[in-house]
Amino acid sequence: MWCPTVIKVGNTYQMFASSWPERYGLAGWTKYSEIIRATSDNLYGPYEFQEVVISKRDGYWDNDRAHNPKIVKAGNKYVLFYISSANETGYAYAHNITGPWTRSDSVAIPFSNPAPLVRKDGRVYLLGRKALGKLRIAEAYQADSFNGKYQPVTSNLNLLPDSNQLEDPTIWWASGQYNVILNDFNGDLTGTKKAGAQYYSKDGIHYYSATKDAVFTRTVTYDDGSSRTFTRRERPFVYVDGKGTVTALFTACLVRNNDGTEQSWIEVQPVGNYIPPKFDNAQN
Hints:
The strands form six sheets. The protein has a four-stranded antiparallel β-sheet with strand order 1-2-3-4, with no helix packed on it. It has one domain: Tachylectin-2, Chain A, CATH 2.115.10. The protein is built from one helix and 21 strands. It is an all-beta fold.
């Protein structure tokens, strides 16, 4: 499993994630990834598989794969953003979390790794990663509704400061600002490649670093004092309650065994009711 995203519906936590046969290893996502749904009565799991929700479709924009989901609720509909090939994000929507799902027939936003935020007025803001050759830059688009026409929020080439690069943003609104955690693609901010980096923005256009410290690394420490350093730890997703408080961090983790085989699963890390402070742009 890879790419976790969670929403609470009633008393049940609904996780959507990417999945493909283990025998293909991590590289299998490029051809075989599909989006599944799993449920739990506890935010921290365990989650039980329920169904395959989205698979690739011949003849449409998502004919390569269905990958990297993010679930939100917009009005009375559930909206599942996901990607196919590089720089291709679309969505599916449903009245019920169990479907049936109606998919967009074409690419909605020309970037990958979508991080959606639904504003109180129904407008949708999406932060994502645009691949330009070897560069991984931050872009943002917005629309009046989830199924409206998405327009770039600015013509700036990269929303992150100092030309920093990224993968896998997760976003939430708290303390009067956009708050983002992402993979520091080259270690531009934290000094550690693909560690967790934190940024914020007052307007969704100008982003600033919240801290230079890594929010997470490839090492996870457990309650019993043991720890594990993963080969890869990516796709951060913060679960936020109705008050903008982060109570859990989900990440996709991979281990490479001595025989060359790979295993991946979702780790969930409790967070002590974190509300980001109201940062001052002047300090950056």
